[in-house]
Amino acid sequence: MEKASSPPTRLARAISDQLLEVVAAAFKSPPLQSPTGEATGDGGSSGGGSTHSRKSSRRLMPAESPPGRSVARGSDGRGKNNNTHIRKSRSAQLKLDLDELSSGAALSRASSASLGLSFSFTGFTMPPEEVADPEPFSDDDIPEDIESGQPEKPKFRTELTLPIYLKFTDVTYKVIVKGITSSKEKDILNGITGSVNPGEVLALMGPSGSGKTTLLNLLSGRIMQSTVGGSITYNDQPYCKSLKSRIGFVTQDDVLFPHLTVRETLTYAARLRLPKVMTRQQKEKRAMDVIYELGLERCQDTMIGGSFVRGVSGGERKRVSIGNEIIINPSLLFLDEPTSGLDSTTALRIIQMLQDIAEAGKTVVTTIHQPSSRLFHRFDKLILLGKGSLLYFGKASEAMAYFSSIGCAPLVAMNPAEVLLDLANGNINDVSVPSELEDKVQIGNADAAGMASGKPSPAVVHEYLVEAYETRVAEDEKKKLAVPIPLDEELKLKVVSRKRQWGTSWWQQYCILFCRGIKERKHDYFSWLRITQVLSTAVVLGLLWWQSDGSTPGGLEDQTGLLFFIAVFWGFFPVFTAIFTFPQERAMLSKERAANMYRLSAYFLARTTSDLPLDLVLPVLFLLVVYFMAALRPDTACFFLSLLTVFLCIVAAQGLGLAIGAMLMDLKQATTLASVTVMTFMLAGGYFVEKVPVFVSWIRYMSFNYHTYKLLLKVQYQHFQQSINGIVLDSGVKEVGALIAMVFGYRFLAYISLRRMKMAGA
């Protein structure tokens, strides 16, 4: 705002008259409701004429002159209370402006406060329109500014939660690396010790490959192998499967269904995970509570989105993933790099949210790769890992002091997280070299750059840091962890006393998953691309076989070719659609099964049956076009029998695709195997070769193309033909039985493959 050093007397008089009118109107008007104290009288203009929300007004307060500050300046420091009534602060502000009207600064300030106008020498200009945030905030466009003086914190549930004290001592983990001739063990974690209490946030930090995610999986019980060593206790009790219902785990990748909305995603999670004693209405209310707790109310009806579907932002997607876990009110919450791929402000909002969750009495453990300085100072405890070894455990605020005490102080002002990551990598270019390390620099140093600069190699630095921690800190920490937690024995036993329970019955799980499957996949099944593909193929077939005559030998031969193509098309199409089912949903299945959301049998049956209504629509459209354009047998019963035959073929072929996908769980391998299998079934389908050699004749009986083709011939021509192209048209019972056996046989094979699939924590 420009300042007028000596405003004209006439202009000052006009302004003073206007101010007196505004003061009189202010004392007659009712108290203002806006928390910022903006003038909203009858004749007053609100800066730029725009209406702001309550949250936006809060964000603008620090940028404007607070009422308390103006009162203090006008009353020589006597008015120090910033919480005065809106009416009093406004009248004091206007009184101050009238008292100092002779000065150009006061004139400009008073005119702006009362009229919403900005005065200068030459006249006045309209003030710039207020905006909620002049700088880009984040990708999810939240109106509250986390960097303002008073950010709004979400109110997380404070209902009774079993406090769990997590302690781990000398945790080791090895994997067996299989070679061509022999196998050897590789150390992933070496003697990790630490603890975290309810109300605290523990950060696991270290460079890539240091073992952060492995340690997180061990602490959450998602890795249970014989190669795990050490002690991990929950309220001084070992891990048991009943703890799954008290643990929330947020994976690094946001594993969500892209075509479900935010509200649908959390509602289905609530209905599956919350206990049976809660009604459906209570579970849905809990989902809505989480939406408001996480600030997702603005996007609750927006689809999650994915690679090819536009949806919510990255920050909102991460909050939905967190909401999926906190919806059960867990005692322990584990998160794997929750800030990856987010901008710094959104990442700060996520970490502050974790603080709020911890303050509600929960224990929070998170891995983080490279936090900013603001993020780093929000953690309560820190574990620094390097090459699977423990370099530091303690309060995050004391980490820099510890490394300075062992001679590794930063030489320049740096983000503490960057200093720690450099040390974990063995890089001490910007860090002072301890005297002990200087003595170890020798000619035989493996690092050539280290020899040239006279600095120790990363391996030597790593060895020094591990040794320093073990000699100075490790033993004291182990002694502290050896002391039993001061909890009642009843609370300790609650960790292991509860039996494994499902949130809902098997039938309810099936119904919920069935409805979720239809909602998720209806977009793919009824996409314009798929509908166009089916209808265009049907129209082309109808034109090529337009009004064919099956009563003549030539017309009969043409129609048999059409029927075989129908059998091949509806055998080929579903196989390659079903192949992608389980490989694409493997991450979701693994995550939800690890959380005990449902039984595998309920998921499998719901997943396979929810496709059936969708699979029936396109074949009906296809046959309605082809059947009558090609002038096949004009009989209603024949049409529906043909439709039933095609439907059996689709379900059998779909079962084959499910089995191949579940057995291999690799799209490239599954596609290759399916191509060979479908081509073999097509060649053995009875159209190309009439007399198949005996030693390969068994293949045709495994081919759904053969049985479908034979049934279609029977429906169309049994009334006047006994055999066509060497195929005897009998009753068709064998063919129907064979297709039904394939429907259930292939699916059973797929289920067994899923049951044997290794999933974390399952």
Automatic annotation (TrEMBL):
Superkingdom of origin: Eukaryota
Residues covered by region (Disordered): 26-91, 126-152
InterPro entries per UniProt: AAA+_ATPase (IPR003593), ABC2_TM (IPR013525), ABC_transporter-like_ATP-bd (IPR003439), ABC_transporter-like_CS (IPR017871), ABCG_dom (IPR043926), ABCG_transporters (IPR050352), P-loop_NTPase (IPR027417)
Keywords of the record: ATP-binding, Membrane, Nucleotide-binding, Transmembrane, Transmembrane helix, Transport
An example molecular function term from Gene Ontology annotations: ATP hydrolysis activity
Residue stretches of biased makeup (Gly residues): 40-50
Cellular component terms per the entry's GO annotation: membrane
Membrane topology, record value: Multi-pass membrane protein
Name by which UniProt lists this protein: ABC transporter domain-containing protein
Organism, as annotated: Trapa natans
